[in-house]
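pasting for ref
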Amino acid sequence: MTPASPLLVAQITDTHLFAELDRQWKGISTTRTLQAILDRLQQIKPPPDLLLLTGDLSQDETAESYQRLASLIAPLGIPAYWIPGNHDNIPVMAEILDKPPIFPEKSFHLGNWQFLLLSSVEAGCDGGRLSPETLDWLDSQLQQTGDRFVTIALHHHPLPIDCEIMDSMMLHNADEFFAIVDRYPQIKIVLCGHIHQEFHQQRGLVSYLGTPSTCIQLLPKTSPIVLDTIGPGFRLLELAIDGTWDTKIERVAGEPATS
């Protein structure tokens, strides 16, 4: 990245890895679909400046699954930052995902953009909640961003996606989140995972973006949940120095999931 060129950010989410290399989830090898995504990322020139991993990185919550994730990501040589999802084991992932090129920091800036990464995990729940401490931290960090533009990432979706089951597992205290976000015009983007599908909705001045999983996909606006036949994906964001931005979803070929 040069000072005048856009910052290129890749978001990977919901990898759902297992300790066993070939173990499948709903008929899909989550390791192999992630490898296909990473192979595609390696073809992007110039490479992304930053990789965001937005939760449900493990399916079985084992140390081996996080070690596999780290070993797959390391060859990219791209600085990577992570947040947990409701399937993750936070103490285990925090111990393993802390060595370059993977970093544990939840607040950092690159170029003219500030990134704030929030844990929305509520113990024992598939749905999400931002703790009072996390909300206070977010407010404090936003007060310190100066003239930088802001991207926030969390696992659970704060806006409904018109899917009854998934919306029962969204961010349950979204109103408290919005009460903070609405006060800071420098916030441009809120990223989430969790929903296994593409989503884009505007709320006020902020764009809320949901990103496909690297493994199984869910057909949008279906209840009960229907598995989609579209391939695994990830998101690319181009963040310009003046606060404008562009984004696209890229997908790779994948085997159809089975219920």
